[in-house]
Amino acid sequence: MAVALSDKLEPIYQEVLQRNSGETEFHQAVHEVLESLGPVIVKYPEVADRKIIQLLCEPERQIVFRVPWQDDQGRTQINRAFRVEFNSALGPYKGGMRFHPSVYLGIIKFLGFEQILKNALTGMPIGGGKGGSDFDPKGRSDAEMMRFCQSLMTELYRYLGEHTDVPAGDIGVGQREIGYLFGQYKRITNRYESGVLTGKGLDWGGSRARTEATGFGTVFFTEEMLKVRGDSLEGKTCVVSGSGNVAIYAMQKATSLGAKVVACSDSNGIIHDKQGIDVDLVKRIKEIDRARISVYADEKPSASYQANGNIWEIPCHVALPCATQNELNGRDAKALVGNGCIAVAEGANMPSTPEAVRLFLEAGVAFGPGKAANAGGVATSALEMQQNASRDSWSFEHTEQRLHQIMVGIHQTCHDTAEEFGCPGNYVTGANIAGFLKVSRAMLAMGVV
């Protein structure tokens, strides 16, 4: 059950519900932020007087368009695509593009809204935005992917620019898709603006460590949460949902810091390897063979596979949900707490339901919300923009060091803000307030209200 809002914030939420009917994920994201802002409007009444919160909940621009394309049989297919340019108070809109059948305007708005505060927490000069399409990339050939991406960019290009809006990848959009999108942008504009998209290949402006950044950053944040409790990842048992980029590199970094990752998953089921997940094998299965995670159990006698299993029922000290939104519910949270889990960090965007978050906080579990814990990906995208602007290229080690510094800084900001507003150890409150205050100060300074 959601926490009741204050008398000043409840009308704002009701207005969001009325203006954005049926967009449940967006409603959830807004409510979670509003739950934290009660002390802010008491300390800073100008925020309420000048309707900063209402402005933050309303995108600056919403773009919805069709994407017609031809499949390999010559048949015309039509998808719908979105780009929500939410807030540019801190810099150009920045956020990924998601290709998945579940995509609709409400999911893009939820992701874009979260992106505003997430990007603010990085300390980088980037605003918040998000985009995507209900196109399903599964089973599509390279030629079909190229035709779809080219058609999408033929409409989207007019809204982009390295000083305006800079998309990146997300679910269903990797380096291949970014290449097709960038190629079409360059073809139409006759400009090599390498800073207009991030997540590019290393040969043409990409950043070393970008692929690893979100997963690495999530683990760096987890380590910082444990450190302030006098603990570390050394010797801890971890479970990681998902088996995409975020999950793979979260497993890799956690293992390098002394943890044992014993389970991961995909949309079909979970693998459990008590001896510790072989990350290199998972990489091969998912990145090279593009196979289902069940293949892991065929090659590793120590592992078991469970179709449609629940990864959160496996005992662990640290849980890293790295798959998709609302994948971890209240029942899962009870199982994790009951099995001795001490830390949860969100590698995905809003993977824990409100009930799960409440249960973690009540149980004293160190809980890192996605807008803080998974901000390493967009932070490294901003580093890629820096390199593109200066026509420079950094080493993997230098980029990872910058990423680590940024994640330590995000943790410190969230930790200190939570204490300042009377909620020590509550990283949800700390992240929401710190991100909100930074954006609202910029909006007030620029006279946008």
Question: Structural class of the helices, strands and pairings?
Answer: alpha/beta
Q: How many β-strands, per DSSP? A: 12
Low-confidence stretches: none
Cα-based radius of gyration, to the nearest Å: 21 Å
Q: How many helical stretches?
A: 18
What is the molecular shape? Answer: globular
The fraction of residues in strands falls at 15-25%
Order of helices and strands: HHHHHEEEHEHEHHEHEEHHEEHEHEHHHH
Q: What is the correct CATH architecture of one domain?
A: 3-Layer(aba) Sandwich
CATH superfamily of one domain: NAD(P)-binding Rossmann-like Domain
Largest sheet: 7 strands, mixed
Mean pLDDT: 96
The CATH class of one domain turns out to be Alpha Beta
Question: What is the CATH topology of one domain?
Answer: Rossmann fold
- Portion in helices: 40-55%
Question: Topology, pairings included?
Answer:
Elements: H1 10-19, H2 24-34, H3 38-43, H4 45-49, H5 52-56, E1 61-70, E2 76-87, E3 93-99, H6 105-122, E4 127-133, H7 142-156, E5 165-168, H8 175-189, H9 210-227, E6 237-241, H10 245-256, E7 260-266, E8 269-273, H11 279-288, H12 294-299, E9 303-307, E10 318-321, H13 330-338, E11 343-345, H14 354-362, E12 366-368, H15 370-373, H16 376-389, H17 396-420, H18 427-445
Parallel strand pairs: 3-4, 3-5, 6-7, 6-10, 10-11, 11-12
Antiparallel strand pairs: 1-2, 2-4, 7-8, 8-9
Helix pairs in contact: 2-6, 6-18, 7-8, 9-10, 9-16, 9-17, 13-14, 16-17, 17-18
